[in-house]
């Protein structure tokens, strides 16, 4: 675990490229990615080339954050390994609620209703089946939304009450899901990825945070540049007891907050809209994305171009949603 980052009281210097143990810092994406100068995805830090069983911890601003996890996983050839810890209400999403559940996703309720036993059992079942694990958790529990200041104020009040540092650009993290996941899978995991995401263009002329892009805006409008900072943390550097892990997790979010303060609020304009250290303008090759596009596009088009196909498409959504909702209500 790196000890010279923000929030540690030491000067933060970019890490030089090093080799050893099969890992390489700051040069992980190959020459084809380093050559890209126009990509809207900019990656900093510690993303290994090889697949790993990991827990992915990130700040949460919008639904696009889910796609960011996929973006990183596909760069490790691990897209099919991604599973999510989700708010319980999302299991009622048409089709997707059932899909996430069957693909190893874990639905959790907040606070006193959090079912630790149920989460442990689901994770143990995944390990027993030797399922590759890229488990995405958003510890804040909800999105950081500058248009809902009460949520931010309540989060800061809770931190103050608990004697924790007050955070500006992220919410106070909740530790339960993270603790259960790490504790249940500590012999199965290779690492924890601590990920900080920032979207350019989400500050107004007064320097105030704006709403992060929605999925529709991200896919249909000009794509904002996305900055992704990854810190790969060894399991041995994470405390096991929940009380101490809570403090550790909050310290990780303090680091995120300092990164985002620098990104959005740096007095020196040259230091804004980027994270410290070396970065890679990361661009995916067509061979990683074109086959999926052709398959899904061809399948959807073939259904929508005929009357019988359109009827099948509609029935799939209607009956699939009803069956899926019934399934997750019986076996979440």
List the topology elements.
Layout: E1 19-20, E2 23-24, H1 31-34, E3 41-45, E4 54-58, H2 64-74, E5 82-87, H3 96-102, E6 106-108, H4 116-128, E7 134-137, H5 149-161, H6 176-185, E8 191-199, H7 215-220, E9 226-233, H8 242-265, E10 279-281, H9 286-304, H10 307-330
Parallel strand pairs: 3-9, 4-7, 4-8, 5-6, 5-7
Antiparallel strand pairs: 1-2, 3-10, 8-9
Fill in the keyword field for this structure.
eight-stranded mixed beta sheet; disordered N terminus; alpha/beta; 332 residues; 2 domains
Question: If you had to describe this structure to a student in words, what would you say it looks like?
Answer:
The chain has 332 residues and is of the alpha/beta class. It folds into two domains: 266 residues, no CATH class; 47 residues. It contains ten helices and ten strands. The strands form two sheets. An eight-stranded mixed β-sheet has the order 6-5-7-4-8-9-3-10, sandwiched between helices. It has a two-stranded antiparallel sheet with strand order 1-2. α3 crosses α10 and α9 packs across α10. It is globular. The N terminus is likely disordered. Keywords: Acyltransferase, Lipid biosynthesis, Lipid metabolism, Phospholipid biosynthesis, Phospholipid metabolism, Transferase. It comes from Geospiza fortis. This is 1-acyl-sn-glycerol-3-phosphate acyltransferase epsilon.
């Amino acid at each position: 675990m790196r000890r010279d980052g923000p929030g540690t009281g030491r000067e933060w210097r970019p890490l030089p490229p090093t080799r050893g143990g099969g890992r390489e810092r700051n040069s992980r994406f190959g020459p084809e990615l380093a050559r890209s100068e126009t990509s809207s995805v900019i990656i900093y830090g510690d993303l290994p080339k090889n697949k790993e069983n990991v827990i992915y911890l990130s700040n949460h601003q919008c639904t696009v954050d889910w796609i960011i996890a996929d973006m990183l996983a596909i760069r490790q050839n691990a897209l099919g390994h991604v599973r999510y810890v989700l708010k319980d209400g999302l299991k009622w999403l048409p089709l997707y609620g059932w899909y996430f559940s069957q693909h190893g996703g874990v639905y959790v309720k907040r606070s006193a209703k959090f079912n630790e036993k149920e989460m442990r059992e689901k994770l143990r079942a995944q390990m027993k089946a030797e399922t590759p694990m890229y488990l995405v958790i958003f510890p804040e529990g909800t999105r950081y939304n500058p248009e809902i200041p009460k949520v931010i104020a309540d989060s800061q009040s809770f931190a103050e009450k608990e004697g924790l540092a007050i955070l500006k650009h992220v919410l106070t993290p909740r530790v339960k899901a993270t603790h259960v996941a790490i504790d249940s899978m500590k012999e199965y995991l290779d690492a924890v990825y601590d990920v900080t995401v920032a979207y350019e263009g989400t500050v107004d002329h007064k320097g105030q945070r704006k709403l992060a892009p929605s999925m529709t805006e991200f896919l249909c409008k000009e794509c904002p540049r996305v900055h992704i900072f990854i810190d790969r943390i060894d399991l041995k550097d994470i405390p096991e007891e929940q009380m101490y892990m809570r403090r550790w997790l909050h310290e990780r979010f303090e680091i995120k907050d300092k990164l985002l303060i620098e990104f959005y609020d740096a007095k020196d304009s040259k230091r804004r809209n980027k994270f410290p250290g070396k970065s890679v303008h990361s661009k995916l090759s067509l061979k990683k994305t074109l086959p999926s596009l052709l398959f899904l596009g061809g399948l959807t088009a073939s259904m929508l171009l005929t009357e019988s196909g359109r009827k099948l498409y509609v029935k799939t959504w209607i009956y699939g949603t009803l069956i899926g909702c019934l399934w997750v209500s019986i076996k979440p």
